[in-house]
Protein 1
Amino acid sequence: MRTTLTLDPDVRLLLERRMRERGLSFKEAVNEAIRDGLLEHPPRSEFRTPTFDLGAPLVPLDKALRLAGELEDEDFARRMALNR
């Protein structure tokens, strides 16, 4: 099918880049882009961060807030002693 197509400048640049990178003709690049946009693709999976086993905790984590407070108090006391 032949048709006239008016492209926005940014779309033209994207097509030209695709043509250059993949060695496609204008017709091939346009058809590929339209297919990509019209075909239903399965939803992309969400980004996943790799996880690692760090072993058993060295401190009891069930009292993490209390521990954080104690560490903060110790640091504050140390800084106050240095400023005297």
Protein 2
Amino acid sequence: MKIEDKKRVLREMVLHRRFEERCYQAYIERKIGGFLHLYPGQEACCNGVMEAARPGHDYVITGYRDHVHAIKCGADPKEVMAELYGKETGSSKGRGGSMHIFDGAHRFMGGYALVGGPFPLAAGIAKAIQLKGGDEIAICFLGDAANNQGVFHETLNMAALWKLPVLFVCENNLYAMGTALALSESETDIQRKAACYRIAAEAVDGMDVVAVEAAARRATHAVRESRKPYFLECRTYRLRAHSMFDAQLYRDKAEVEAWRHKDPITRYQAWLEANHMVHPDDLMRIEAEVAAEIADAVAFAEAGTWEPVEQLARFTYADRAHEPAGEASWHK
């Protein structure tokens, strides 16, 4: 990767962190409602993987901690912020909110609130690619807690049997909401679960974007060449609560503080500085540019329109006014 690309990755990671921090503030201000799951601490996972993928070409799907994934795939931060505000100008017209960001134009196939929900959808996307003979791959991001779902095992089994071009990326942040990994999983070395289905797998330091990118390049290359599944476990940590409703009574403050010293952005920045690829002026410029971009996103969201009440039945099964001709009797 060229030096300019490395600087770009740092800028994007800073943008993602500041975006999430601004979401936190907007939630406190009651401008964002519902559930809100933030990504700080895990930025190396999404950024490292997507640097090795082909954004806009490969298909990406994830769970409900999805803002950063959408933006990294190419979604406009302004539209993502507007979606969080529930505005019609949002990426899903305000109907999805935080947990259901979607941007089909950039092949980001959505965030899903159902734990384990993306697994079979990712397999279906990979099967469609296979049937069409395309060179794309499907990338499914998942959390460690979802590995206890039966659909996890069913999907890995089918992906292996059908030889599907799908990369499973487990963002293992050590907690299933408020339950520690060791209390919910008899096998805490998650990548070994994939090996049970004869799927190539490896684990990587999910707080190191350089290491994640290197592992993801091996993984994406393997999937593209073999057209078979691959499993990558990124061992990471969320620096914020599971959601805005989480009091974090299940983990010690000293533990969180220890992980803060492994902050993926600080770590990557230090690596760039040590290798003379970034300088203080670059860092100041990045922060200024990001601050302006976040301000634009918030302004766009706040100026966005609400969907008219008379249109609330659109995009639902009760949307009779937009039924194709000759199909109006299906519900009778």
